[in-house]
## 1
Amino acid sequence: MNDQRLRLDLTDLAEEVTVVDLRDRTLRTSRRLGVQRAVATSAAALVLIAAVTGTAFAIRPNQSPPPLPADTPSVIVTPTPTQSPSPTPSTSTSVAPNSPSGGSGQNTPTAEIGKLFYGPAEVTGAENANLRSWRPGDNPVRLLALPALALKGNVSVSPDGRRVAWVDSDGTSNNLFVANADGSDKQKVRSDVDPYCVTAVWSPDGRQLLFRETKANDAGGPGRYGVLDVRSTARTVRWWTTEPDACHALWSADGQTIAMNTDLGVTLYGTDGTTRRVVPGFSLDGWRSNDVASLSPDGSRIALLRKKSGGDAGDVARDLRVNVVLNTKTGQEIRLPLGGRELRQVYFQTDGSMVVRVQAGNGYAVLLVGEDGQKISETAEPAALKDMQILAVGA
């Protein structure tokens, strides 16, 4: 093969080869790379969207979980219930089943001890002594000065605690006086009033006084009962048509009943003096009582000093000691929550609760007992009242 033959063969081969446009190749390469980038970008966007969507699905409430593979044990998922706002705590006190409610239907007792009025427990040689008042939580207060015998034997405090009535002698007559508890506005309202047997007693509204008219030094002699209107200018009296053979009247807070001691025990009267019923449980050879202290608002219970017959029957003078509370219809004793201590005095309040005074060590304590017989509170008396007795409970 010579050189000429070689050149001819190479020329023929070149004519058979397709010419490639480098620019076209470059453009095709550029388009391919752009498509690849677009595909990559789109894929990345789809991945991002899928991720965001998955996150949204994950945080969306109440979204059901994806189905588990068939070989996975079945698990029941219970959604957590939506919590409602906590209610405002109740201020009422829960009452256990069968626990007494005090008759008011309220869970929290509202009864409280009113103002207590005190006088000397024993008559001393002093001509006068001061009436005192005390409300639990406060200090004792000194009130008007009265004859010691009146404080022990016949003083009466109005239900609202504002007025005081008592009988004092001027040598010729036993006179009934009224005054404010601080001693102001003292007035003589009646003469010839019994100071021992039927001591004057206030009506529930504090307007009237039940008393017995009798001549001086004749407490057990003939007399008559009257209801004096102390607020009227004329001091009018409504006289009873009967004269019960009884002493120491108590007036119920509802204004319907008056209780008094009789020969053997206690009798209940209407406000006009008519007999209603005798409290059972008293007899010549059994229990007797000459002294009553307090009557419940509806007349159904009475606090008194009860003794066995044959013992010291006492005298006509008033004695405010108490050793029992009785049901006036049945004569049955009403148990009190004394905690093993000695009962000394009991006073009913207008809501039916009782102020109960008990011996507590060398002094005394006062208990507040609800109408249902349950103790509500207990307070120690101030030492200054140790030698005194409770005369009344006011508002």
Note: The first strand starts at residue 115 and ends at 120.
## 2
Amino acid sequence: MTDRRPLLRAIFDAAVAAAHPDRILAAHLPPAPSGRIICLAAGKGAAAMAAAAERHYLDTLNLEPSQLIGIATTRHGHRVPTRVIEVIEAGHPMPDAAGVRGAETSLALAATATQDDLLLVLLSGGGSANWIAPTEGVTLAQKQQATRALLRSGAPIGEVNTVRKHLSRIKGGRLARAGEHAGQIVTLAISDVPRDEPSAIASGPTVPDPTTLADACALVARYGLELDPAVLAALNDERNESVKAGDGAFAHARFEIIARPRQSLDAAIEIARGAGYEIADLGADLEGEARDVAAAHAQLAREARAHGRRLAILSGGELTVTVRGQGRGGPNQEYALVLAQQLSDLPGIAALAADTDGADGGAGNADDPAGALIDAATFTQIAALQLDPAPYLADNDATGFFAKTGDLLITGPTLTNVNDIRVILV
């Protein structure tokens, strides 16, 4: 049987390339102002975006280095060389003290902006964790505990960010308020959220926030989150309401999305179609429990196989895992594990599920798996090792399972993030 793994990897790589800062950022950068460019970046692509901005302003436009200042706060292991913009590596998904320093420094720099200056904000997925500025009365440890509870709850990312925005001094429009004296605030964002909602990307530090403290409290109740009393008090303090539309902070603010999950999914589809596959495009905004979505997709694969179709089933979006076990993994690996469980008797199947940032769940390390692949070799290994996927699923230990079969996808940091890419080749 033909090895489909190179094709699966080519499909994934095309999706990543379509959203890489080196390829997409320069065309969207605004003209230089008469004063300074204050560049503040956050997220997994922050350092790469900052480096691309440096090349544009310092090399292409020959700006004096003294006119460009800033700080990029990115995930540990996602640093790239920069010349004048400082890079801080911070925690993700669990925020840490380095993220506090990055956020505090960013707020302080924004506050120095004058009418002659451009406040350039570069956002990518992961910015919510990287920029951590707990509101008054909440400690970093308490914010970490709240983050942990949210991530284990199975709540979609938009709901997670609704709570985080109301515990922060930088999220929910507050960075724009800090820099409201700038002549212009321009935010360029790589979207990692379903439906590309601006207020959800990095928790919307420079845009009006449509969510409220009441919304955050309702989510805490819905998911039965056990939070520190100081956190609950903050969520009931009207001073922590996020910045709303019509606020003067947004008078000179512009927001633009420069890469979307849809564009990356389209790039992936182009590769699959070029390889001779009929396409089942399930959309770029899928949400839901990873194992439930995987079961539905496995059924689509069975039906395609039964009808003799040469089909590529592709989807994007961001799935979730309600964590009940003690294992390791992320939604893409759990999705792949369900496929391995349900399709092991079906010949002619190969699949990949991975996060375009290069890390699916994990412990926040640069060498965490991006996801996993399955094909006939996987099923052979499962049989040879007498592996049963069920207990691994019960323990949320997809990483442990695929480490044994040798099917983890390790890419390292990709320096962008437009959610997940999943493909099943039938």
Note: The chain has a mean pLDDT of 96.
